[in-house]
Design goal:
Helix content of chain A: 25-40%
Strand content of chain A: 25-35%
Largest interface: A-B, 39 and 39 residues
Oligomer: homodimer
Chain lengths: ~200, ~200
């Protein structure tokens, strides 16, 4: 097969990376890295324009050394007000949170913050497409979990229900996201199925 | 009139702020502050969910003092890959850049970066709603400038055309954004008019 130079470069890098890691782990890249690579692929193919939002940081001190770039010398991480990823697909607003867990039997709700859930609820109410991507790292399985189910179980928890989502339930109510070479977390076909078919 | 406590508080703060500033400037808040207040108002009214993206920062060193929050001790500003604001309105993806200029006769294209324009072009191609908000600070006028016109004149510039957008042209092709008390840059009604009527 012929690949353009760029793709061969990335292919080679990934191969090297995978080989380097093979001795101590088969997991490959983190979920965040996989989603970033996927989003870049979608962008290059002009299918979608979805980005990870930068981490919000409160800057306290900046130095301006002569002839060089400004250096931030004191800053603090701020709490996120929203989710990790947003962007556009087929004209629609897309907004999601992505989480990994080492747990093999359930996804603890403690992994998600209340303001993230409320942000996703707001997106849903405004007609956007919101969801959770959950990876069970040890099982090497990644799921698209719909916002409707997430909100239902979250609200139940606040009335005394379970503090986690069982793996079985995520498997039943969610959609397993296939791993393909270019789109390592190929979530757009699931959106096609749920919202555009 | 009766306002809820929260609103009265903000009202009072703004009043104080305006009075404090009155001695050296009548301009009030910056465009960014005005847009943030407007977006907060839209969010509270459940009309739209639109946020300023955090500034991307490359973190080089972090210290973890005992019993206190992590301190970033070396970091650098990174170039923005996209625009300043994005979010959702009426199910649609919204993405825009906002710029102020002290210039009274034109808006220089040098205020906008090539990757910001290309990002907006991509959003437009994917069916989203993208535009430029320009404030002529000295004239105290703020305009919604449509993406179609922006791309046309940008592309002309790269074929040897003007390196700026004349104020007169922005006034003709754009839409003056009204200033209202709660929505200081009330741009949603213009989107209604252009995309939903």
């Amino acid at each position: 097969m012929n690949y353009p130079q760029g793709t061969r470069g990335i292919r080679q890098q990934n191969k090297t990376r995978r080989n380097n890691r093979a001795s101590y782990s088969n997991r490959g890249m983190t979920l965040e890295e996989d989603i970033n690579v996927t989003n870049l692929y979608y962008l290059e193919k002009a299918k979608a324009n979805i980005h990870k939002k930068p981490t919000p940081i409160q800057i306290v001190n900046v130095r301006y050394p002569r002839r060089s770039a400004a250096v931030i010398t004191e800053a603090y991480f701020q709490a996120k007000a929203t989710t990790d990823y947003n962007g556009i697909y087929r004209g629609k607003y897309i907004d999601f949170e992505a989480k990994e867990t080492n747990n093999t039997t359930s996804f603890p709700f403690s992994n998600v913050q209340v303001h993230q859930i409320e942000h996703m609820r707001s997106v849903q109410n405004l007609g956007g497409i919101s969801f959770l991507i959950v990876r069970f790292t040890s099982l090497n399985e990644t799921f698209y979990y719909p916002i409707e189910n997430l909100l239902t179980h979250w609200d139940k928890m606040h009335k005394g229900g379970r503090k986690s989502l069982p793996y079985k339930q995520i498997k039943e109510e969610g959609y397993k996201i296939p791993f393909t070479y270019h789109a390592r977390v190929d979530y757009l076909p699931i959106i096609d199925q749920l919202y555009f078919s």
